[in-house]
Design a protein that fits this description.
Helices cover 53% and strands 22% of the residues. The chain contains 5 helices and 7 strands; from the N terminus they run βααααββββββα.
Length: 186
């Protein structure tokens, strides 16, 4: 069975990173306010220690980003989650858990898998598209165009193929044309 894997460019990656950094900064500010307003000395000390660790994580994130090493914002959110859990702020921990989940969804690699039976599109949740649902599927100059029978069109820039850095557009388009013709004859 012939299969193609196309890695799509995540057009909103920078926006997601910015929102995550903003969420971390807001949570650090909330934790600092809690430290100032905390009644007992041990709770204040716990919050200040957690904020100190978080500041180290954020500074590491800032310096590692310049050298293109993996992002640490997910780790920062996990530290914030643990801090809220230890302080027994359940509602705040729930919100941070939701942010952590959304962050993990936005950081995944967007791979379109095209095979004889279907196209697997990396939406959330993942969408399985049958060949019979399509009018056309074409890759031209790094732009993947999916034309649905219900007059919807999806276009995405392709970074590279899943297996290597080159993808034979002619071979891919011919494969898609054969699959579409077979689905129309059914």
């Amino acid at each position: 069975m012939q299969q193609f894997e196309l890695v799509l460019k995540n057009e909103r990656a920078q926006q997601y990173q910015l929102l995550t950094k903003l969420a971390v900064a807001i949570n650090l500010l909330v934790l600092l306010i809690l430290a100032v307003k905390a009644g007992s000395g041990s709770m204040r000390l716990q919050i200040i220690a957690a904020v100190g660790v978080m500041m180290l994580v954020v500074l590491a994130q800032y310096y590692l980003q310049k050298s293109r090493l993996p992002q640490l914002m997910g780790t920062a959110l996990a530290f914030i989650l643990i801090t809220y859990l230890l302080l027994q702020f359940w509602w705040a921990a729930g919100l941070v858990l939701l942010l952590l989940f959304m962050y993990s969804v936005t950081q995944r690699k967007l791979i379109v898998a095209v095979n004889n039976e279907q196209i697997i599109y990396p939406s959330f949740p993942r969408r399985n598209i049958a060949w019979t649902d399509l009018n056309n599927l074409i890759l031209k100059d790094g732009l993947l165009t999916i034309d649905f029978r219900n007059n919807r069109v999806a276009q995405n820039h392709v970074v590279n193929s899943g297996n290597d850095n080159s993808l034979n557009e002619t071979e891919f388009n011919e494969f898609c044309r054969r699959q579409l013709n077979q689905s129309k004859s059914r």
